[in-house]
């Protein structure tokens, strides 16, 4: 049991460090592999995520051992907000997200278990997230017909549901809490209990 | 000194019980199978997952069901491929449960067996004339245009008349209607099977009737698909204005489901637009026919044994409590002529030897994915180590994403059972399966074999300006995999 706890603790540290950007993408993958954790492998990513991933890599160059970039001011220039993901166990995971990045990309960058089956093509509802506070939900732009068509079918649909690939990080969303729907938990939003699908 | 002791303890630990391999076999490589595999791998460091499928190609209905003009829906294959390529996961194709090995043999080899093989059969209407030629299930027709090796020789009759009737108004009904009515120039650049494209180029079908026994508020189709079909150029939509009147019961249904409400609004808009469009020769028409249920199929006088139409009974809706309305016959009948009928009224699962099965519902009885042996009173006794996921568990409903949560529930049950230590014995797993298949001379196709098929199809596709040119026979698929 001790070894199991050590391995979990170690991987939590690694995850935390990765989120703060202290470990390069490459470094993080290696560390987590040695803890025997399964990671969705990074090579095949949607085009949008790849460029922001590159941007993220460039910004964290200070902390990695092999860097060939020359961008020194990346960190200061790109504004970031905090998004708090609430996973199926109710655990709150705050992550730093650059303005302009979608919630889906942000989740993938930070190993949050949010599926994106159609890779942001508005052809599925697997990146469904629930905005926990109606105040933040109202700050978002109205969903398009196409997004609403997909939301119609989302599991555990609530009045404050959105597709993660369509929600883009903006300054006014700083501190937003997003719950990931689960087969085993239903999330109350502002005391509102969502209807089962 | 204590540092060395700590390191020794840690290294001893990693070779101890909880990283002892957990051998899992998943039968079926569609979304249910792959989401289950993904979650098992993430939840259990010691899990080794084998995914078997009777086809040499993985991905189930994502490859053989999703329509050729819906490529974005097929992107899910990327994530499934990543799972298949995981070091603790193996895809083994061309292995059929029930023929190449039995369920009990599989349960002897693996700690956990998850059946996720979906629904490969159809609901029947059970009405006279159902066996006339020219009547197919939508599943057969879909497999035909998607190049499934079991149906490449279907040869549906598309040249006898200009009318086809589709029974059912769900998304599968819309898919087949669209493939029948889309200009073939548009279909030519999709991954549709070439034999289907050729047949469609010579098709005389110009009018397709989508028949539903209830009304527009109850139609099973969804907004995205409806929006798409309403937007097809030069396709005229026909909806009777009278069919759109709603009752208080209908209003209630729309209140509880935003999806229903949005679909009704789309259909109303379409009906209004239809009134203003002009009729023109050789135009393609899609008719939404509501409140009609098929009573019998009519046989052609000129071509014995072939369908020439459907006899339909008008219906009205009756409330059966809990907000549900059913269709009831009124005794008034009318005929609709056609030379082809596609039944899109739902799929049905197929049982295997040794598997508890509910023949009425067409699913495997289960509690949160654990297969039930039998039920007495309140208590359900479950089969140790046997689980279900996907359509085999829930019935043939839902979308690809539904399997994400279905898999979460099933894997939750598996994890609970593991914690309770239900399996203490060691199993042969992959090694045992390979030995068995070798003994029986089964020509298995591993993921690398699929990658060869994939590469060949893409290469052939480039030559014809298609994303891929599917290989449609067992011989061609197995040959490409072995190359």
List the helices and strands and how they pair.
The complex is a heterodimer of chains A (197) and B (483).
Chain A (H helix, E strand, L loop, with lengths): L1 H19 L4 H10 L12 H13 L14 H4 L2 E7 L5 E7 L4 H7 L18 E4 L2 H4 L7 H7 L9 E3 L12 E4 L18
Parallel strand pairs in A: 1-5
Antiparallel strand pairs in A: 1-2, 3-4, 3-5
Helix pairs in contact in A: 1-2, 3-5
Chain B lengths: L1 H13 L7 E6 L3 H13 L3 E6 L7 H5 L11 H9 L4 E5 L9 H7 L2 E4 L5 E2 L12 E3 H8 L17 E5 L3 H11 L2 H4 L6 H8 L5 E5 L11 H8 L4 E5 L8 H9 L1 H19 L7 E6 L2 E8 L7 E13 L5 E13 L2 E4 L3 E2 L17 E2 L2 E7 L2 E10 L2 H4 L7 H18 L9 H11 L5 E2 H17 L10 H9 L1
Parallel strand pairs in B: 1-2, 1-4, 2-3, 4-18, 6-14, 7-8, 7-14, 8-10, 9-10
Antiparallel strand pairs in B: 3-19, 5-15, 11-12, 12-13, 16-17, 17-18
Helix pairs in contact in B: 2-4, 2-14, 6-7, 10-12, 11-12, 16-17
Structural notes for this entry:
Chain A has 197 residues and is of the alpha+beta class. In chain A, 32% of the residues lie in helices and 13% in strands. Chain A is built from seven helices and five strands; from the N terminus they run ααααββαβααββ. A five-stranded mixed sheet of chain A has the order 2-1-5-3-4. Chain A is globular, with a radius of gyration of 17 Å. Chain B is an alpha/beta fold and 483 residues long. Chain B is globular and about 85 Å long. The model of chain B is unreliable at 10-18 (pLDDT under 50). At the A-B interface, α1 and α7 of A face α1, α4, α10, α12 and α14 of B.
Task: Report Rg of chain A.
Answer: 17 Å
Helix count of chain B equals 17
Helical coverage of chain B, percent range: 25-40%
Question: What's the overall geometry of chain A?
Answer: globular
Domain FAD/NAD(P)-binding (chain B): 23-183
Keywords (chain B): Electron transport, FAD, Flavoprotein, Mitochondrion, NADP, Oxidoreductase, Transit peptide, Transport
Subcellular location (chain B): Mitochondrion
Catalytic activity (chain B): 2 reduced [adrenodoxin] + NADP(+) + H(+) = 2 oxidized [adrenodoxin] + NADPH
